[in-house]
Amino acid sequence: IAxxxxxxxxxxxxxxxFGDDGKEYFVLESGVLECKVYSEETKEVVVTKxxxxxxxxxxxxxxxxxxxxxxxxxxxxxxAWVLDQMTFKTVIMxxxxxxxxxxxxxxDNIKVFEKMSRYEKIKLLDGLEVQYFEENDVIVKEGDVGxxxxxxxxxxxxxxxxxxxxxxxxxxxxxxxxxxxxIEQEQKRTLTxxxxxxxx
Length: 200
Description:
Elements: E1 5-9, E2 14-16, E3 24-30, E4 33-39, E5 44-51, E6 56-57, H1 59-64, E7 71-74, E8 78-84, H2 85-108, H3 118-127, E9 138-140, E10 150-151, E11 157-161, E12 166-171, E13 176-177, H4 180-183, E14 192-195
Antiparallel strand pairs: 1-8, 2-7, 3-6, 3-8, 4-5, 4-7, 9-14, 10-13, 11-12, 11-14
Pfam families: cNMP_binding
Protein name: Cyclic nucleotide-binding domain-containing protein
Domain Cyclic nucleotide-binding: 1-109, 112-200
């Protein structure tokens, strides 16, 4: 916090402009922002999401030294905490790199990814999202259309056939599930997967 600067923005102010060099990282304290990107498919600028208080943004251009990929505009008067590029690199980026290396080691141990190149695995990390489940939570419901592929990092799960509540198998660290429903569109889940313990 000591390294961050508090800034205020008026409604319709542009915090980030598409194509600009990234120089700042933002944490929104109050207000609402709108994120717009240019769609190559429709050749139009489209709104992808709104950003609300507590959200952080702007790190991608700093991490990868690429131009801004979106324009972010204030929908209301806003207050944000801002971290400059140099401080971001020395503080935040070192932490991000450490976390990325931990995740990369985890991916290296997953059999389904063993034939992927180092570069492909690093790109894969960008698409991974951490989700947490408590004991007895239903992660996947038999009959639902699949949207996610899961890899277990912590905990264990049970795969159950709803009819007769038959336990088909148990899975734990490094095991994965949900991939079949993603291979074919509109493919429905064939089993229910329930957390046997707290899971990540």
